[in-house]
Hints:
Layout lengths: L2 H27 L6 H33 L4 E12 L3 E12 L5 E14 L3 H11 L15 E6 L7 E3 L4 E11 L4 E10 L11 E7 L1
Antiparallel strand pairs: 1-2, 2-6, 3-4, 3-5, 3-7, 7-8
Helix pairs in contact: 1-2
Amino acid sequence: MRKDTVNILLVAVIIACVGTLVASFIVDVGWPVAGVESVANIVQAIAAAAAVGLGAAFAYRNSVLFRTFETYINISHAVSHRNIGASYVHVSVVATLYNSSRVKVAITEGFFQLLQVSPTDDDDITTLYAQAFPGDEIGEMFDIQWPVIHQLPFHSHTDRLVIEPGQSHSEIVEFIVETGTRSVLVYSYFANAMASEDTVSASGWDRTTSL
């Protein structure tokens, strides 16, 4: 636990204890004040409120700090295509990874997929639908597993790709598909090297773009 966190909790405990002791002292001594017990109760209530206020401030501060140091990446795709020859189409994808958090983000692995949406025959669509909606419960569904045309791994030039806060990094990949392919999805995924069981940070980030 951080030293400043311990100090906040310690102060809250001290305030609560001092308030209780002062209230008890007022009652025991019996100061010549009208409504001694009422005064003691007021002192004790003020001390308790101060302790609760410090506790709330501590909880809020921890929440803000947690969000502040949580890693996050925004991914955007810029997808273009053009015919090459009579039978093929060239698909170019620029994936931009923007670090919108306040700490550096490290990425060790990832991949790109080109998924075929159309053409797809009716039998395959029926199978895909059954996989995506396996039960009768309302809201129970899974991602549709479109056929994968190509998959390319992400390769970092070093042990890991590090993106500083507020910085961006772009990855470019290229695919070639047959002209008979009318509609595709571009999917990318990048694993968070800093994720662990001790945190709730995302295990990775993904993005899907249709073309």
